[in-house]
Amino acid sequence: MVRLVHIHRSQPRFGEVATDPICELLHTYHPHLSIDIAPLDPTIAPPLRPLYDVVIMPVLGYDSSGNRLGMGAGWYDRLLVAQPQAYRIGLAYTELRLSAIPIEAHDQQLDRIIAA
Hints:
With 116 residues, the chain is α/β, with parallel strands linked by helices.
């Protein structure tokens, strides 16, 4: 059962999918959930606790294998390493799908990408 969800606060200036409507829907239809809405600050280390059931993050490019491009600071890669139990969801625009994303050893794949 999902109890704790981490979701980024979208940054329109970076062209990210808006997350406020998602937070409202989660709160309305799943009031038992605890939702951690976090602005992304790459200078702050990702949290080790609490343990999230779901992590929803921005995607600036993606491929069909679940690889993603972010802002390049590796913040979500570090979070996902610290949260291996979390189901990993990326939010992107359909036109950002690429045939392949070059990956490095530290890159973490997503379980699902939702494209708008």
